[in-house]
Amino acid sequence: MSNRNRYYLSIDDIRRAHGADPALAWQGASPTDLAAALQEALRGSGLFERWRAQQPDPDDVDMGLAATDPQASASARVSDLHVDLDLVTDLPMRVVRQRLDWLIGSSWKLRDMRAA
């Protein structure tokens, strides 16, 4: 039985969708670039490891946040005046939320979630 979920997200202003820490934040400009960055952040550990290295005690970090999903997929498209971002992963929302916050801050909204 698969625990894969499809997350439907919305970003109102992609031009301002950047995380607070420039060392972790997404620096692109297009929906396609954002989807690729998110997909990479969920498939691999690079973004998590950069964040972990910044912590006062990296060995004390909750390693549950290090989870990855090599099969994660993300796609984004402009819809009206916002960007729709669709994500399929088996990662829990707490991990997805953290990676999104690092990449684009609080610029996103979860519209829906369904089993994939």
Number of helix segments?
3
Sequence stretches where pLDDT stays below 50 over 5 or more residues:
none
Q: Which sequence of strands runs across the widest sheet?
A: 2-3-1-4
Order of helices and strands: EHHEEHE
- Integer count of domains: 1
Structural class of the secondary structure composition? alpha+beta
Q: Which sheet architecture does the biggest sheet show?
A: 4 strands, antiparallel
Q: What is the tally of beta strands?
A: 4
Task: Describe it.
By secondary structure, the protein is α+β, with helices and mostly antiparallel strands. The mean pLDDT is 95. A 4-stranded antiparallel β-sheet has the order 2-3-1-4, with helices on one face. The chain contains 3 helices and 4 strands, in the order E-H-H-E-E-H-E. Strand 2 (73-79) and strand 3 (82-89) form a beta hairpin.
Keywords:
single chain; 116 residues; alpha+beta; four-stranded antiparallel β-sheet; 3 helices; 4 strands; 29% helix; globular
